[in-house]
Amino acid sequence: MNKSNNNEYDELTKRIGFTSMIELICICLFPLILQCLRSLVCIHFNILSKNRFYLSLIIDYFIILLPIILLLTLLSSYIIIIVISCIVIFLLWLLLPNYNQMNSFGNFHFFPTDILIAYLRTTIYILSCIMIYAIDLPICPRRFAKSELNGVGLMDVGTGLFICASSISGSKLIWYMNIYRGNSKRFLDCTLNSVVPCLLLGLLRTLLIQMSNYHQNIVEYGVHWNFFYTIALIRAISLVVTTENPISSYLITFSLKKQILFYYVVSSIFLIFSEFLPIIICPEYFQTRWQFNPRTLHYINDNRSKSLWIANFEGVTSLFGYASIYFFNLSSSLIFRSYLSTDTNNDSNNGCS
Length: 353
Hints:
2 domains; single chain; about 0% strand; 14 helices; mainly alpha
């Protein structure tokens, strides 16, 4: 890359993103709708994934992957129109007269909750992979990039979506812990299998960046912090309630309703901490309304070498916010499961008060 192209690239990547909430909702819904349409197509033409792997792969590419890529690049100016059109097509297909093939939906999936989890995870992975590669290309609008002081961009919601997916999986574990008492994974095993690898990946990334002097935007997570540390620590916090340990064993002695209320309270506590922690770290550089402002950002950038906390200010303070998101979504997922799960056990809601 010559000097002029390098300058153009730097100028491009300096632009800060700002995506409207309507666009964010539409973008997140689009892969879910496409996956539903894909299932309808496979059902209508009796295409079984196990028997026709390559045909299913082609269908996935043209019905799911390619439309998402086009929506995030060439057709980004028509996001709302395209998503609404797909929703209308999906609803019309379902409402077609004499359409009785939905009974075979079970040939592809087990039950509705698993469908939601699978589709949500697929949505997160597809959007993350596409945006990681596309965001620095001119064909991708810069309004999808990460924001700094105000607003939100599409790239800002990636970690939050991973946290939401993790909380949905955690709600399934808690649900079955309440039904089948004592039948859960051990805390130490899950820590070694999921938390430690993420910490090692985060450490490896930090070392490689520091040793290679690779350019990074420290406003995102800080000097040493990165995505893997956040995921690892949130995962460690979640294991306290989703694995076999004294705390989770005590919690399941209460009714599911009380557990849900407890998780909402925990979410609120983490949310309060996420608001007060920046004030504790550098109180004199916040406005009276506790807003994160350019003056605060300049202070943090000028003093990152003086304190490990300030060096990783963004990563540390965001951790409590992500924990709040996790427990809030965990409670909401448990409510959802309590109404829709087909495996409801009457004994799960009759714990000791």
